């Protein structure tokens, strides 16, 4: 009896698997994944160059282009902001907006989590915050693509954070002092080897979590929006249109929030980890 | 086991069909570009944006802080001045009151003194006058006495000269003697 039921379940799953093979969902992935072209469909497709360096494929991909766009926007805007202070200390327009964010990173993120000596990490935290924020928002505009929705990008950013954290800790506490400080105070001697391994692993899980969190958040929102829109085409009916559009719009608004929150969380956690590495006594 | 294997098939078939890539694919080229882009951005922004912006913000914060502190100091000073002014005015009023009081006292005293003096002077004058009168009186009296004595002596002399008569003298002596005897 039991094996019969199992057969039925297996059969159903097999059917589903076969249908899944037939059902083409690549168009969703096409929007989310990296590519060697920029798809501006009604206006054409821009093919990006393939570059090989010592056998390593370093082609300029869509996400690289969008990172550069983010970079150019940031350089252009922030240079203007920096110059505007020469005329007047009273912020206006884009200066006002940027200043709010800068002060937020400085006073709400860096100052409370790092404390003394936070000024040294401020340029890094500000760059990370603005870079992630701009990349997140670039994914929300039409024809845009979310570089931060790519695990390679987020993992790299998290790795840079990892290095900043370790270098910050070593710079403040000395090489041996830093690794000694990883161990909690007052543990029995026989626990030290185990705790050391655990704490060492902890150093790596922190940036890993950073990378996964940002990547998953940025990708998930886009997939949900695309899936909701895709319902219209999969079900071949106009009835779902209002529902799909309403839900997609809702998710899109949520995405705006998520774009801000994820930039904040990445910066906040980086700052927190830097603070923990620099001031180990806490 | 079979069920599990089909689940795995399902999962993988989805992944394989997703346009020749999965979201979890790691692209070394992209990693390299991310590192390059990020480091470049960090360096450029540090020089172009963060330093001047943060400096300006600090400068502005200091300016605001200083201005506020200055304003506070100025306010305190003004308050102190007002209080001082009030105190001064009060003092001045008190002083004026005091001066008025004093002058009133002085006037009163002066009045009393003048009155006293004038009374004294008057008294003295009166006394003097009285003494003078007394003196004049007694003088007059003495003169009168002298004159009266003179007149009396003269008259007596005249009378004596006219009435010096032996008989009459005898008669008078007798009469006196009689009177003495009777007593």
Give a structural overview.
The complex is a heterodimer of chains A (282) and B (183). In chain A, 32% of the residues are buried. Chain A has nine helices and four strands, in the order ααββββααααααα. Chain A has a two-stranded antiparallel ribbon. Chain A has a two-stranded antiparallel sheet with strand order 3-4. The termini of chain A are far apart. In chain A, helix 3 crosses helix 4, helix 6 runs parallel beside helix 9 and helix 8 packs antiparallel against helix 9. Chain A is mainly alpha-helical and 282 residues long. The longest helix of chain A has 44 residues. Chain A has one domain. Chain B is mostly helical. Chain B has one domain. Chain B has three helices and no strands. About 7% of the residues of chain B have low confidence. At the A-B interface, helix 1, helix 2, strand 4, helix 3 and helix 4 of A face helix 1 and helix 2 of B.
List keywords for this structure.
heterodimer; A: 282 residues; two-stranded antiparallel sheet; two-stranded antiparallel ribbon; 9 helices; B: 0% strand; rod-shaped
Brief account:
The complex is a heterodimer of chains A (282) and B (183). Chain A is mainly alpha-helical and 282 residues long.
Q: How would you describe the shape of chain B?
A: rod-shaped
Number of strands of chain A: 4
| Structure annotation, total helices of chain B | 3
* Molecular shape of chain A: globular
Q: In whole angstroms, how far apart are the ends of chain B?
A: 198 Å
Task: Supply the number of helical segments of chain A.
Answer: 9
* Number of spatially distinct domains of chain B: 1
- Major sheet of chain B, described briefly? none
- Total strands of chain B: the figure is 0
Please give the most extensive interface between any two protein chains, plus how many residues each contributes. A-B, 65 and 47 residues
Integer average pLDDT of chain B: 83
What is the chains' assembly state?
heterodimer
């Amino acid at each position: 009896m039991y094996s019969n039921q199992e057969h039925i379940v297996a059969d159903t799953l097999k059917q589903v698997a076969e249908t899944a093979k037939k059902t083409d969902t690549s168009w969703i992935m096409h929007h989310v994944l990296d590519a060697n072209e920029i798809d501006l469909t009604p206006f054409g497709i821009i093919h990006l160059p393939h570059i090989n360096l010592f056998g390593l494929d370093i082609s300029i991909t869509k996400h690289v282009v969008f990172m550069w766009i983010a970079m150019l926007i940031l350089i252009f805007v922030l240079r203007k902001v920096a110059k505007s202070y020469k005329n007047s200390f009273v912020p206006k327009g884009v200066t006002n907006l940027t200043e709010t964010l800068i002060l937020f990173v400085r006073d709400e993120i860096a100052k409370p989590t790092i404390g003394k000596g936070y000024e040294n990490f401020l340029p890094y935290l500000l760059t990370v915050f603005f870079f992630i924020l701009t990349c997140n928002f670039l994914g929300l505009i039409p024809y845009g693509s979310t570089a931060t929705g790519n695990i390679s990008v987020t993992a790299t950013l998290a790795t840079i954070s990892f290095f900043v954290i370790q270098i910050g800790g070593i710079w403040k506490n000395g090489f041996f002092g830093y690794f000694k400080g990883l161990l909690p105070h007052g543990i029995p001697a026989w626990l030290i080897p185990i705790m050391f391994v655990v704490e060492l692993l902890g150093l790596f899980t922190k940036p890993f979590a950073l990378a996964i969190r940002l990547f998953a958040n940025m990708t998930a929102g886009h997939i949900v929006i695309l899936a909701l829109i895709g319902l219209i085409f999969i079900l071949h009916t106009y009835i779902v249109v209002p529902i799909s559009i309403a839900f997609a719009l809702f998710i899109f608004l949520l995405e705006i929030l998520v774009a801000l929150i994820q930039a904040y969380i990445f910066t906040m956690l980086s700052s927190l980890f830097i603070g923990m590495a620099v001031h180990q006594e806490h | 086991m079979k069920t599990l294997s089909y689940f795995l098939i399902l999962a993988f078939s989805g992944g394989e069909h997703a346009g020749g890539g999965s979201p979890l694919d790691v692209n070394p080229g992209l990693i390299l570009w991310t590192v390059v882009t990020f480091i470049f951005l960090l360096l450029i922004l540090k020089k172009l944006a963060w330093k001047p912006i943060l400096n300006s913000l600090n400068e502005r914060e200091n300016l605001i802080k200083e201005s506020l502190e200055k304003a506070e100091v100025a306010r305190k000073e003004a308050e102190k001045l007002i209080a001082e002014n009030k105190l001064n005015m009060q003092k001045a009023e008190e002083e004026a009151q005091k001066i008025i009081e004093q002058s009133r006292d002085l006037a009163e005293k002066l009045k009393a003194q003048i009155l006293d003096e004038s009374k004294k002077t008057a008294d003295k004058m009166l006394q003097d006058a009285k003494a003078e009168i007394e003196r004049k009186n007694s003088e007059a009296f003495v003169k009168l006495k002298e004159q009266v004595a003179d007149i009396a002596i003269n008259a007596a002399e005249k009378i004596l000269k006219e009435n010096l008569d032996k008989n009459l003298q005898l008669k008078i002596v007798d009469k006196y003697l009689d009177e003495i005897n009777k007593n």
